[in-house]
Amino acid sequence: MCVKKYVVMFTVAFTFAMLPLSYPSAADFGEWLSGLKAEAKAKGISEATLDTAFAGVQPIQRIIKLDRNQPEFKKDYWSYIKMTVTKSRIKKARQLLIKHRALLEEIRNRYGVQPRFLVAIWGMETNFGTYQGNFPVIGSLATLAYDTRRSGFFRAELLNALKILDEGHIDVSDMQGSWAGAMGQLQFMPSTFVSFAVDGDKDGRKDIWRSLPDVFASAANYLSKYNWQANRTWGREVRLPSDFNRKLVGLGTKKPLSEWQKMGIRRLTGRDLPEVDIEASLIMPSGSNGPAFLVYRNYRAIYRWNPSHLYTLAVCRLSDRITE
Q: Collapsing DSSP states into helix, strand and coil, what is residue 282?
């Protein structure tokens, strides 16, 4: 779930955010759409693209209902990992790592991102491309842009989606995604696509729906732009001393491993931390009674993709299990 897309965060224990339902009026949609088209034309979108993209488009009431009634869950680390890093997903990831080894190594050589992380993100986002969402991206984004709750955000995403269509990367009928507009095997929002998508197979299109060279290259390009380190891993689970200062927990604090070592932090086995020159932050995603992790720069790059410690740790854990 890329950070640039609308992400459902896990915050409240198995409850629903029941906001009052106030559906946008279809009667005024035509006038709103005329203004949107004028803005798109001013940004260089062709009239032909606009006619094709908006043919028959009307507000989708189901999307408004989904937006108002998003399921929000409170998961601890253990239950979330059990739910996401499953035996079947690990097995499938290992098979696909072998199947696509040549392509993934080519991507590693170009961007410096290890194959296991790319496969893990792919698995977490769309179960290796098997579920990409079946909502029309233009219809979804037009509905949410016309709605008043977060119209500015989704209007910008809609304009980016039109740019993608205008450049010929995908046909409007194939531009499918989540109800909130996240697209393709990586679940990129249109703004993320515009900034990071890559034509990995050199066919003139950036196709994150069907082209694995484009999928893997786009994911690797994203991570590399956020200072990915090709010769490092993501971090490790650690053991804390009983008197550890919890005020040091969080990504806002970065210290060399040698300093964490002096504070009494050890590997989970009790051994000393690695003697390498690398900065790390300490996170405890389930609070003081849960596990602790020292995380490195690569962890931060994945966290930029989706700012959830549980999601990021699931990607990292899955990446570890793939190559065990």
A: strand
Angle between the 151-166 and 137-146 helix axes, to the nearest 10 degrees?
150
* DSSP code of residue 4: T
Number of neighbouring beta carbons within 10 Å of residue 244: 17
241, 263 Cβ separation under 8 angstroms: yes
pTM over 0.85: yes
Tokens 């992790």 -> residue: 293
Domains in the chain, CATH or no CATH each: 15-70+133-183 (1.10.8.350), 235-295 (no CATH)
Tokens for 55? 């043919």
Instruction: Scan for tokens 């596990």, then name that residue.
Output: 291
Give Cα 56 to chain centroid, integer Å. Answer: 30
pLDDT for the residue 288: 86
Angle at CA 148, nearest 5°, toward 147 and 152?
95
C-beta atoms surrounding 228 within 10 Å: 21
What letter represents residue 54's amino acid?
A: F
Tell me the average pLDDT across 238-242.
Answer: 96
- Are 185 and 218 contacting, i.e. CB atoms less than 8 angstroms apart? no
The residues facing 69 across adjacent strands are none
Q: Are 204 and 211 in contact (CB under 8 A)?
A: no
User: CB 205: neighbour CB atoms within 10 A?
Assistant: 18
Q: How far apart are CA 149 and CA 141, in angstroms?
A: 13
Say yes or no to pLDDT of 111 above 50: yes
Q: Once rounded to an integer, what is the mean pLDDT over residues 246-272?
A: 97
